[in-house]
Every structure is written in structure tokens, then in C-alpha cells.
Amino acid sequence: MLASHTNIKVLEAQVSNLYLNFLLSFIISVVLILTLSFFLIKKIYKSFILQTEQEIDYLNEQIINLTALNNQLNNQQVKINDSYNEQIKKRITTYHKDELISVSVTDIAFISLQDTVIYIQMFDGMRYVINSSLDEISKVLDPKEFYRANRQYLINIRAISSILLYGKNQLKLTLKPDLKEYVIISKNKASDFKNWLEQ
After folding, report:
1. What is the CA angle 150-197-176, rounded to 5?
2. Burial class (CB in 10 A: 0-12, 13-18, 19+), 29
3. What whole-number distance in Å separates Cα of residue 198 and Cα of residue 154?
4. What DSSP line would sit under 138-192, residue for residue?
5. Helix (H, G, I), strand (E, B) or coil at 125
6. 131: which DSSP letter?
7. Is the Cβ–Cβ distance between 120 and 94 less than 8 Å?
8. How far is the C-alpha of 152 from the C-alpha of 162, rounded, in Å?
């Protein structure tokens, strides 16, 4: 009985020792797992921060490139506008009998081709001859103010008295000062003419 009692004490001591070893192993495992998790999370976080910084640097570089491109486009647009404005004339030189006359473009009602002669019709009723072709003149007049209606007429928007429907999708214009004939806008140009009116 004494031997069995001694065996029980030995067994209890071994169980207690096993329990302590298990508890110690468990605590060490938890500490190791937490430590490894901490370092793993720290590494992932650093990687994430590095990737985010690289993306921010890339986006900043793209913004700088786009800003530079935008500035170049703005400068180019300014040059185009300046070039365009240099081509647009405010006055045109013409002839009246033997006299050279400079007329303001804003005073021109329309320019017409009649029997191979180009005439400038003014709002005040005066009419002058010019040596340029309608194509040449249309290039130096403001396209918002003047429209090439057909092969015979280049008209000022302020000279249009009325617009009538004519035939199949054509337009018939009456101009001021009064013209003996109508100015016809072909069906091919009718849509373009309407867009011009709405500018």
C-alpha cells in the first residue's frame, strides 16, 4: 500500500510536471505566434506603405506631365488664336472710281460676284469694286460674322432680313439693303448655315 501511495505521488508529480510543461509550451507558442504575427503584419504594412508611396509618386509624376501638356496646349491655342486674329481684318481696301477707299468690315452688308466683278455692298447703300476673289476675302473676314452662302455671295449676319424655306430643304434669304434677287442656300449647305446662325 505504501508502494501504491508512492506511485500515486510520483504520478501526481509527473502529471503536474506535464501540466506545467504543457502550459509553458502553450504560453511560448502563443508568444511566438503573436511575435511572428506582429512582424508579419509590420512587414505587410511596410510593403503596403511602400506600394502606396510608389503609386502616389507615379500619380504626382502623371499630374506634372499632364500639367505640362496642358500648358503646352494652352500656349499652342494662344498662338493659333493670335495667328487667327492676325488674319482677320477689320478694314478692307477697295476702289470707288479712281479713289482708293478703306472700309470697315462691320459696315459691309454682303460681297457679291456679278459678271466676273466682285462688289462690296455697304449697309449705307454704297457699292465698291474689289480686286480679290470671294475665296480670298472669306479667309480674312470673321467667320462668325460672314458666311459664304453660295458661289456668288458672302453675307454679313446683320444683313439677313428674312429666311424662308424654299424648295426641298433649301433656304431663301432676303438681305438689307434690299437686293433685287434672293440669295439661295442649297440643301447641302442648309444645315451648316443653321449651325452658323446659332453660334
Report:
1. 65
2. exposed
3. 18
4. HHHS-TTTEEE-SSSEEEEGGGEEEEEEETTTEEEEEETTT-SSPEEEPHHHHHH
5. coil
6. S
7. yes
8. 18
Q: With bands split at pLDDT 50, 70 and 90, how would you rate the model's confidence at 180?
A: confident
* CB within 8 Å of 174: residues ≥ 6 apart: 160, 161, 162, 164, 182, 183
Place of cell 495667328: 83
The fold adopted by the segment(s) 91-197 is OB fold (Dihydrolipoamide Acetyltransferase, E2P) (2.40.50)
Residue with cell 452688308: 109
C-alpha cell at 21: 510543461
Q: Work out the pLDDT band at 15, boundaries 50, 70, 90.
A: confident
What average pLDDT score do residues 91-111 get?
90
* Beta-carbon contacts of residue 108 (< 8 Å; ≥ 6 apart): 92, 120, 121, 122, 123, 146, 156
Question: Domain map of the chain by residue range?
Answer: 91-197
Other beta carbons within 10 angstroms of residue 113's beta carbon come to 15
Mean pLDDT, the chain, whole residue set: 88
56 grid coordinates: 502616389
